[in-house]
C-alpha cells in the first residue's frame, strides 16, 4: 500500500495537517518553557521539578479520563486538548513584555499542559484506527509520526534562532497560533459515531476492563512495564539536555535547538524508513533491538566532548526510538478491539508515563550531586540491561505472533 493512497482519504488529510500544526506548536511549547525557566533560575532542580509538575496531572488525567475516551467524541477531545494548550501560553506571552513573568507562572502553564496533553494522543491513536483500514495503519502511523517529528525537527532549531534574534515572545505567539490552527483543522473532520451500550458503566468498571485486556495479552503488559523503565530513564534525561548542551558542552540556545532537532531528524528518517519498508518479520528483534541501541547511544552521549558528535548521537537515538514507537502503536491498534481502544490505549500510556516523574525528580537530584554525563552513563546502562532481560524472557516471543489475533479479539 503506497503512502500516496492515504491522501485520497479526506479525513486522514485533515488529521495529518492537524498533526503537523500540533507538532510545531508542541515543540515550541516545550522549548520555550524549558528555556524561560532555565534562563530565570539556572537550576537543574528547577528543570526536573517542572517535569514533575507536568507529569503528575498528566498521569492523573490519563487514569481518570482514559476509560471515557471510548464514550466521548474523540474529535472534540483532540480539539479541546489543542485549544487548552494554546490558551495556557497566552498568559506568559502577555507577561513577558511587561517584565512581570515569574517562575511560578511557568509551573502553572506546565500544569495546564499536563491536563490537556494526555487527552490528545490516545484519542489520536483511536481516531486513526477509526478512519483507516487495518492494512493502511502501518503506513498511516508512519506518516503521522514522521510529520509530527518533521515539525519537531524544524521547531527547536527555528525556536532557538528566533529566541536569539527576536526573543521568546515571538515563539510563544507562533505556538499559540499553531495549536489553535490544529484545533480548527480537526473541526473539518466528522465525528465518529460509536454504538452506545444501554448501560452506562462507571469509571472503575471501564478502567478495570481496560486493565483486564492485558490479562489476555501478557506480552502487552510486559511491553508496558519495559516502557515504564525506559521512560523512567527518559524522564531523568530530558530535563538535563539543556544544561548538558549549554553548561557541559558550552553551547548556545541555537545549538540546544539543533540538538533537539537532530533527534527529530532521526525520528523523521526512521519514520520514512519504516513507511517504505515492509513490516519486520521479526518484530521482537526490531522493537527490543531499537531500544538496546538507544541505551548504547546514551552511554556514548555521556563520553562525548564535542557538540557535533552529540548531534550525531541524538540523530541515532531519534532514529531507533521512532522505529520502536511505530511498531508498538501498530501492535496495539491491531490487537485491541474498537470498543476498548480508548481505555486500553490510556492504560498503555499510563504504564509508560508512570516512571517519568520519578525519573525527572531523581535525575535532577543525581545531576546536582554528580554530573549530567555520569547521569547519562547510568541511564544508558539501565536501558541496556532492561532490553537484554526482555529479549531473553519468553513472554516477549509473542511480539512475533500474528496468527491468533483475530480469534482472541472476538473473545474480548
UniProtKB/TrEMBL annotation:
<feature type="transmembrane region" description="Helical">
    <location>
        <begin position="372"/>
        <end position="392"/>
    </location>
</feature>
<feature type="transmembrane region" description="Helical">
    <location>
        <begin position="253"/>
        <end position="274"/>
    </location>
</feature>
<feature type="domain" description="Major facilitator superfamily (MFS) profile">
    <location>
        <begin position="219"/>
        <end position="412"/>
    </location>
</feature>
<keyword id="KW-1133">Transmembrane helix</keyword>
<feature type="transmembrane region" description="Helical">
    <location>
        <begin position="347"/>
        <end position="366"/>
    </location>
</feature>
<feature type="transmembrane region" description="Helical">
    <location>
        <begin position="309"/>
        <end position="326"/>
    </location>
</feature>
<feature type="transmembrane region" description="Helical">
    <location>
        <begin position="104"/>
        <end position="127"/>
    </location>
</feature>
<feature type="transmembrane region" description="Helical">
    <location>
        <begin position="45"/>
        <end position="65"/>
    </location>
</feature>
<protein>
    <submittedName>
        <fullName>Putative MFS family arabinose efflux permease</fullName>
    </submittedName>
</protein>
<dbReference type="InterPro" id="IPR010290">
    <property type="entry name" value="TM_effector"/>
</dbReference>
<dbReference type="GO" id="GO:0022857">
    <property type="term" value="F:transmembrane transporter activity"/>
</dbReference>
<dbReference type="InterPro" id="IPR020846">
    <property type="entry name" value="MFS_dom"/>
</dbReference>
<keyword id="KW-0813">Transport</keyword>
<feature type="transmembrane region" description="Helical">
    <location>
        <begin position="286"/>
        <end position="303"/>
    </location>
</feature>
<dbReference type="GO" id="GO:0005886">
    <property type="term" value="C:plasma membrane"/>
</dbReference>
<keyword id="KW-1003">Cell membrane</keyword>
<keyword id="KW-0812">Transmembrane</keyword>
<dbReference type="Pfam" id="PF05977">
    <property type="entry name" value="MFS_3"/>
</dbReference>
<dbReference type="InterPro" id="IPR036259">
    <property type="entry name" value="MFS_trans_sf"/>
</dbReference>
<keyword id="KW-0472">Membrane</keyword>
<feature type="transmembrane region" description="Helical">
    <location>
        <begin position="213"/>
        <end position="241"/>
    </location>
</feature>
<feature type="domain" description="Major facilitator superfamily (MFS) profile">
    <location>
        <begin position="1"/>
        <end position="195"/>
    </location>
</feature>
